Structures are given as C-alpha cells and as structure tokens.
C-alpha cells in the first residue's frame, strides 16, 4: 500500500514538473517591474517628426572659388546648387588621411588661383559624427579630432584634386591621399557658381557680396503651438505627484521641473543629476540629445506632420561653449532663424552630463508650411556691408542670411537680415533688409 502511494505521488510530481516546463517554454513571463522608477518616462504619442544625427549635420555655407580671384557663396537656401554639390560629395570616398601643419599650404594663394569648393560648418564636427555624412576612412590615428571645414580644389601644377579637412584647433589639416574625385568633378561643382552673385574677401577669410542681394523673401507664416498639457505628458510627470504653481506656468514633481514662459510659447525643463566623474564626450552628448528630442515632443513640424523646418547642430550663444552645451539651430525654408534678444525662438538648447539631459529649452511654436504675403527684399552688400561688419564689435567668423521673427497673434513674420557669428560663438543680427525696388508695401 505504501509503495503504491509512493508511485502515485511520484506520478503527480512528474505531471506537475511537465506542466511547469510547458509554461516556461510557451508562455510569456511578465518581466516588467510593477513599480516604475523615477527615471522612466511616460510613453506618449509623438508630437513632431523624428530626426537622425546625420540629418542635423550640414555645411553652413559652400564657398565656391572660381579661379582668377573670383568667388561666390552658396547657402542651404541656394537651391538647387547647394543640394546638388552636397549630394554628389556624400557619394564620394575619402581615404588614407595624413596630418600636416595648416601652414604647409598658402591658403590665400590657393583661394585666389585655384578652382575649388569649401564646405564650412557652423561648429566643429568630430570625425565620428562627420562620418555619418561623408564616406571618410575612420582607421587613422587622429579620428578623435574635430573638423570645421573641408576644402576640395584642383591643382594647376599637377592636374589633380586635393582634399583637406581642417582641424578646429586651427593648427592642423588632414589630406585625403585617396579620394575618388576627378578634376572634371570639381570643375562641374564650380560651374554652378559661374553666374551667381560675386563675393569678395573681407578680413581674413570672410566673403561678402560685392553688390546688394535681392534673392530673399519676407513672409507671414501661420503657426500652431504645443500645449502645456502635451509637454507635461512628454516629460514623465506623474499626475499624482505634480504640483502646479497658481499662475499655471510652473510644474514640478519634487525633482524635475517644467516652466512655460513667453505667453505659452517657450518651454524650460530641468532634471538635476548628481555630478559624475570624467570629461563629457561631445559625440555621446549629441547622440543622446537627438534621442531625447525624438522621445520628448520631436522636432518642430506643422499641423500636417511635415513642413519647411529643420535643425542643424550649431554653436551655442554662450561664449563658454563646452561639450555639455548642445544647440540646434532652426531653419525655415533652409534659412536660419535668429531671434536676437527680442524673444526666445529658433533653436533648441540643451545641457548634458555624460549623456544625461539636465536642462532643455525650446519653442512650443510650430510653423506651418504655407506662407502668405511674400515680398522681395534686398540685403546690403559691397562697401555698405563692409562698414557694418567693421563696427560689429568682435571678430567675425561667419556671415550668413537669416530670418528675424516677429510674433503676432496668429502668425509669425519672418524678415531677411544679415547675421554674423563672432569668435566668441555669439550669433547676432547686423543688418536689416529693405523692400526691393518695384515691390508693393
């Protein structure tokens, strides 16, 4: 009897064991923690479009050297030439980079006598990020350096193409010993500038138009905006722990804080973290910054999910622009928006520490793709622009056309201006445009 009982018990144990094995093999165990930590963000519907790092890196301008001391400049808004040249260069390969002193070549002479293209970036770009835009050999000793300019030109002496990457430290250049570019390729790129506006040298290496430029349009752009509720949902706040100040503009959950300013059009968010050891890595921070924007509101788009807005990795306005400060400059119709001190608009500003976002600021305005009341306006050039730049109050590192925004009740007025970036990193408006002759007010 005892032996029979043992047999029955053993049979039951085997059955239970087989059943448990079945559950382990074919069921989906619940592995998520029942209580989310304070670092988890609420997953919400995306508000704007997402971007990749490579979408946010592109030259601020292309300087075209035509030979015989003739030059012109293409900006992202110079369509289709800017895009044609950039796309052709993105398909080329640059290999076997060798470092040399920047003084090994007389660049002023190269610019005067040789045909070529300069790709100038709005901030130093690490090789590791630049490789997401161009096919650059990464197997070399100095791949951790950063680049702010690429110069491709044809050498008259040897009937060949030379390609140089300029280190942002101003001391070194890297020549690509192997680049699948022919003389005819460069001549083709340069040919796009034969009939474009003529530019001349100002200062050391800035190019300004010889004559006023009448290719810019002012316009009125309808807009929508993100709401405070949408932003709160996108920034983790647990409704049970959020406190709202009576004014309705400030929210916090004991650790993180969100502030809505400027009549509901500007967001400031902070998430303080304990200091960590080690230096910040720009590449790590840029990748983390892009991911953060993608997950928390996305990049500005219009009400239809598309639009004319895009962003570029740029210098911050803070003269002390270390690797922890990341700024993305907003472009509308391929023209950067520079708001000056009148209002906060036209950029996303972030501070990161070892890939973690500690502060985040952005506009809540979404510009529509449709515009109205377009008018042709003229930007100064020649001696008038030269005099303006001489009184800019600092060393000018870049000159570019931009839009100055002016917010009305239901629309944004964008007016063309000349803007400069100083050696300190500060971006400022230096010259207004006027209505072109024959344009109705």
Automatic annotation (TrEMBL):
Residue runs in coiled coils: none
Pfam families: YycH (PF07435)
Superkingdom of origin organism: Bacteria
Ranges for domain Regulatory protein YycH: 3-422
Protein name: Regulatory protein YycH of two-component signal transduction system YycFG
